[in-house]
Design brief:
By secondary structure, this protein is an alpha+beta fold. 35% of the residues lie in helices and 16% in strands.
Protein backbone atom coordinates (compact mmCIF):
# COMPACT_ATOMS: atom_id res chain seq x y z
CA UNK A 1 0.00 0.00 0.00
CA UNK A 2 1.27 3.44 -0.93
CA UNK A 3 1.68 5.85 1.96
CA UNK A 4 0.93 9.44 1.03
CA UNK A 5 2.13 12.64 2.69
CA UNK A 6 0.97 16.24 2.49
CA UNK A 7 2.83 18.67 0.25
CA UNK A 8 4.31 21.77 1.84
CA UNK A 9 1.54 23.79 0.16
CA UNK A 10 -1.15 21.69 1.86
CA UNK A 11 0.67 21.89 5.19
CA UNK A 12 0.81 25.69 4.85
CA UNK A 13 -2.90 25.78 4.07
CA UNK A 14 -3.61 23.99 7.37
CA UNK A 15 -1.87 26.74 9.35
CA UNK A 16 -4.23 27.98 12.07
CA UNK A 17 -6.52 24.95 11.82
CA UNK A 18 -7.36 23.14 15.06
CA UNK A 19 -4.60 20.65 15.91
CA UNK A 20 -7.09 17.76 16.24
CA UNK A 21 -8.25 18.24 12.65
CA UNK A 22 -4.66 18.33 11.44
CA UNK A 23 -3.83 15.11 13.29
CA UNK A 24 -6.94 13.44 11.86
CA UNK A 25 -6.02 14.58 8.34
CA UNK A 26 -2.44 13.30 8.68
CA UNK A 27 -3.60 9.89 9.93
CA UNK A 28 -6.31 9.75 7.26
CA UNK A 29 -3.76 10.43 4.54
CA UNK A 30 -1.58 7.63 5.90
CA UNK A 31 -4.45 5.10 5.80
CA UNK A 32 -6.25 6.37 2.69
CA UNK A 33 -6.17 4.46 -0.58
CA UNK A 34 -6.32 7.78 -2.44
CA UNK A 35 -4.04 10.80 -2.19
CA UNK A 36 -5.54 14.12 -1.14
CA UNK A 37 -4.59 17.68 -0.36
CA UNK A 38 -5.94 20.97 0.94
CA UNK A 39 -7.31 23.50 -1.57
CA UNK A 40 -6.81 27.27 -1.43
CA UNK A 41 -9.14 28.57 1.30
CA UNK A 42 -9.53 24.99 2.59
CA UNK A 43 -8.26 25.84 6.06
CA UNK A 44 -8.52 28.93 8.25
CA UNK A 45 -10.37 31.82 6.57
CA UNK A 46 -10.69 35.49 7.37
CA UNK A 47 -14.14 37.05 7.34
CA UNK A 48 -13.15 38.81 4.10
CA UNK A 49 -12.18 35.52 2.44
CA UNK A 50 -15.44 33.96 3.63
CA UNK A 51 -17.43 36.92 2.28
CA UNK A 52 -15.72 36.60 -1.10
CA UNK A 53 -16.52 32.87 -1.27
CA UNK A 54 -20.13 33.74 -0.44
CA UNK A 55 -20.19 36.44 -3.15
CA UNK A 56 -18.74 33.92 -5.62
CA UNK A 57 -21.49 31.45 -4.61
CA UNK A 58 -18.83 29.01 -3.38
CA UNK A 59 -20.27 29.12 0.17
CA UNK A 60 -23.68 29.58 1.77
CA UNK A 61 -22.14 31.45 4.71
CA UNK A 62 -21.36 35.15 4.43
CA UNK A 63 -18.69 35.32 7.15
CA UNK A 64 -20.48 38.01 9.17
CA UNK A 65 -24.07 37.08 9.94
CA UNK A 66 -23.58 33.41 9.14
CA UNK A 67 -20.06 32.42 10.15
CA UNK A 68 -18.18 29.39 8.86
CA UNK A 69 -16.35 26.88 11.01
CA UNK A 70 -13.37 27.75 8.80
CA UNK A 71 -13.22 31.20 10.40
CA UNK A 72 -12.45 29.66 13.80
CA UNK A 73 -10.07 27.01 12.44
CA UNK A 74 -12.54 24.24 13.23
CA UNK A 75 -12.99 23.03 9.63
CA UNK A 76 -10.92 21.70 6.77
CA UNK A 77 -11.76 21.13 3.11
CA UNK A 78 -9.95 18.56 0.96
CA UNK A 79 -9.62 17.56 -2.67
CA UNK A 80 -8.60 14.23 -4.13
CA UNK A 81 -5.29 14.09 -5.99
CA UNK A 82 -5.84 11.67 -8.87
CA UNK A 83 -3.08 11.23 -11.43
CA UNK A 84 -1.59 14.55 -10.32
CA UNK A 85 -4.83 16.47 -10.83
CA UNK A 86 -7.33 17.85 -8.32
CA UNK A 87 -10.65 15.99 -8.25
CA UNK A 88 -13.87 16.76 -6.41
CA UNK A 89 -15.56 13.64 -7.77
CA UNK A 90 -18.05 12.22 -5.26
CA UNK A 91 -16.51 8.75 -5.47
CA UNK A 92 -13.03 10.06 -4.65
CA UNK A 93 -14.27 12.31 -1.84
CA UNK A 94 -16.24 9.43 -0.30
CA UNK A 95 -13.07 7.31 -0.13
CA UNK A 96 -11.28 10.20 1.57
CA UNK A 97 -14.23 10.69 3.95
CA UNK A 98 -14.04 7.03 4.98
CA UNK A 99 -10.37 7.53 5.88
CA UNK A 100 -11.03 10.85 7.67
CA UNK A 101 -13.88 9.43 9.74
CA UNK A 102 -11.88 6.30 10.56
CA UNK A 103 -8.93 8.44 11.65
CA UNK A 104 -11.24 10.65 13.74
CA UNK A 105 -12.65 7.56 15.40
CA UNK A 106 -9.17 6.19 16.16
CA UNK A 107 -8.14 9.54 17.67
CA UNK A 108 -11.46 10.05 19.53
CA UNK A 109 -12.21 13.29 17.68
CA UNK A 110 -15.87 14.22 17.17
CA UNK A 111 -15.83 15.00 13.46
CA UNK A 112 -18.67 15.73 11.04
CA UNK A 113 -18.49 15.28 7.28
CA UNK A 114 -20.41 17.66 5.03
CA UNK A 115 -21.24 14.74 2.73
CA UNK A 116 -23.66 13.46 5.38
CA UNK A 117 -25.69 16.66 5.48
CA UNK A 118 -29.16 16.50 3.96
CA UNK A 119 -29.92 20.19 3.38
CA UNK A 120 -26.63 20.96 1.61
CA UNK A 121 -24.06 18.28 0.82
CA UNK A 122 -20.55 19.68 1.16
CA UNK A 123 -18.44 16.70 0.11
CA UNK A 124 -14.95 18.24 0.66
CA UNK A 125 -15.81 19.61 4.15
CA UNK A 126 -14.90 18.24 7.60
CA UNK A 127 -15.44 19.98 10.92
CA UNK A 128 -15.17 19.40 14.64
CA UNK A 129 -17.43 20.82 17.32
Amino acid sequence: MIKFSFSQKSLNRMSGVNYQIIEVAKLALAISSIDFGIPRHGGLRTSEEQQQLFNDKASQLDGTIKKSYHQSGMALDVFADVDGKASWDECHLTIIADAMLEAANRLSVNMRWGGHWTNFRDMPHFEVR
